Amino acid sequence: MGAAPPDRPDLTAIAAGGLDLLMPMHVRIGSHGRILGCGPTIAKLHQGHGFLDRPALEVMDVRRPSGVEDLRDLRRLVGRRLYLKLAALPGLTLRGIAVPMPGGGLLLNLSFGIDLIEAVRDCGLTDADFAPTDLAVELLYVVEAKSAVMHELRGLNLRLQGAKSMAEEQALTDTLTGLRNRRALETILRRLVEGRQGFALMHMDLDYFKAVNDTLGHAAGDHVLRVVAQILTDETRANDTVARVGGDEFVLVMPGLADAALATQIAARIIARLSLPIPFEGSICRIAASAGFTLSDSYAQPEAETMLNDADQALYAAKRAGRACVQQYLPPELPAEAPREPQTSRRKRGPSAGPAG
Question: Active-site residue among 240, 248, 297, 312?
Answer without folding.
Answer: 248
